[in-house]
Amino acid sequence: MTTILVPYHQDEQLPHDDIPVRADVTVRPVFPATDHWDRLATGYEAVAAAAARAGERPLVFSGDCLFAGAVVAGLQRAGADPGIVWFDAHADLHTLDSSTSGYLGGMSLRLVTGAHPEEYGNRFGLRGIAAGRAVLADARDTDPAEAEYLATGAIRRLPVAEVTAPPGPFVLHVDLDVIDAGEVPGLRFPVAGGPSAGDVLDACERLLATGRVAAVHVACPWHPAVDEHERQARARLLSRFARL
Q: Could you give the CA distance from residue 192 to residue 240 in angstroms, rounded to a whole number?
């Protein structure tokens, strides 16, 4: 298994050791001085290429959820056709039209399942995953527009303890904010009332036991650590995911 580190939140380079894992490959794109979508696509292209070369079940750590689409695109280049299981405190199902904040991370799952291909997927060769092959775990902080989409769409939403996999191979995506905010210091968008880290890891182990996980993507959407205590807490948490 190859471990890939992407030390970026969108196109913002993160401080050294912000994602404290030992990586076989660290992706450091050279971003062009063009529009934001082009800059992002440069990063996603680099991650897709790394994932395509990585071999069996790459493990990717990054600073936000949008890189999940690049992991999927890399597997597609390597000949796979994966679905996705998406662990997140948020639904990440907004579009450019429905978002009130404009934060692109809040659109991540919708983009991975084919929304706005001209801005996102087409720029780095992602073929959007059919909504019926996507499973959303938790999403306890869901906006009205996202809830409406879930009520009418094909994406299945399940509690972490009950999550099951879609048919065929799939990407296991874990946004660490799915874990109760009391356990993960410094999150950008913390949400209380979530499952424990142990609960999430147990669910991941059950999914891995299917033998159909094609890649694992762990998103670490947190602010830079404020002290050594926070850095050590994050390192301990990521070491548990690195052993998956």
A: 21
Here the tokens at position 124 are 């780095």
pTM above 0.85, yes or no: yes
What gap in Å lies between CA 1 and CA 153, rounded to an integer? 34
Question: Sorting pLDDT into bands at 50, 70 and 90, what band is 140?
Answer: very high
HEC sequence for the chain: CCEEEECEECCEECCCCCCCCCCCEECCCCCCCCCHHHHHHHHHHHHHHHHHHCCCCCEEEECCHHHHHHHHHHHHHCCCCCEEEEEEEECCCCCCCCCCCCCHHHHHHHHHCCCCCCCCHHHCCCCCCCHHHEEEEEEEECCHHHHHHHHHCCCEEECHHHCCCCCCCEEEEEEHHHCCHHHCCCECCCCCCCCCHHHHHHHHHHHHCCCCEEEEEEECCECCCCCHHHHHHHHHHHHHHHCC
Domain spans in the chain, listed from the N-terminal domain onward: 3-242
Contact predicate 116/129, CB 8 Å: no
User: How far apart are the C-alpha atoms of 28 and 57, rounded to whole Å?
Assistant: 21
At the top level of CATH, the class of 3-242 is alpha beta
> pLDDT tens across 16-70, in order?
899 999 999 999 999 988 889 999 999 999 999 999 999 999 999 999 999 999 9
